[in-house]
Hints:
Strand order of the largest sheet: 2-1-3-4
Number of strands: 4
Protein name: Vacuolar-type H+-ATPase subunit F/Vma7
Oligomer: single chain
Family: Belongs to the V-ATPase F subunit family.
Structural class: alpha/beta
Order of helices and strands: EHEHEHE
Shape: globular
Pfam families: ATP-synt_F
Keywords: Ion transport, Transport
Number of helices: 3
InterPro entries: ATPase_V1-cplx_f_g_su, ATPase_V1_fsu_sf
Distance between the termini: 30 Å
Amino acid sequence: MSRIVAIGDEVEVSGFALAGVGVLPASTDGEVRTAWQELPGDVAVVILTVAAAGALAGELPVDRPLTVVLPC
């Protein structure tokens, strides 16, 4: 079964755990990049905070999971 994960500042993504979303807290650009690179193969959707999306700008390959960015 595929999973959904959220990457970003813990305060912004922690609530997603209540809906069964895997939460990968990342507060720095380096932590965001590490979380992205270490995504398990069964992840189908990644929810990013605005800051996390900025940290990954230009690095989101086409063959990776569907990625959505939370509105500001």
